[in-house]
# Entry
Amino acid sequence: MATTSDIRNGMIIEFKNDLYEIVEFLHVKPGKGSAFVRTKMKSIKTGQVIENTFRTSEKLTEVRVEKHKKEYLYFDGSFYVFMDSNTYEQIQVPVDLIGDLNKYLIENMVVGMKFDPEGRILGIELPITVVQEIVECEPNIRGNTASASGKKATTNTGLNLTVPFFIEIGNKIKIDTRSGEYIERA
# Structure
């Protein structure tokens, strides 16, 4: 059992019959009354972010999660197939577990895979940035070289995002996987 003083970013706890990862927390000690911890937690299964306040006297059930590096191989229509580079063991991950992260997966990409103590897959962690190729976007118009706005584009994995006007079809760009935003040309 953990207490509220043990809370840290990235900690996984059992809360309301689900597993949540602490995204951010703030220890608050008001002038009057007892201290408390305000948290933002992300559900491991659904990805939904909720806010909750814990009193300092509350006990939390911390879940030990193992993270292993796995290499993404391919999508076979119903499962994403990953491989352990050390043992060459292949793991099939259901589509619903990957969700919208599939737009960032590129063959041979190394990801972090989270496992609970029973060995069940909880999810994957992508690298912070990925490089993808633009396959569809509006053509450039002369004079649109530097502007705060941008144009819509689609990458080779089907990801839709806004890119600067100077980006053309065939350009490789670096994308932030946390926000889904364009960073720079690769």
Remarks:
- The CA atoms of residues 105 and 133 lie 13 Å apart.
- The two ends are 46 Å apart (CA to CA).
- The chain is about 0% helix and 50% strand.
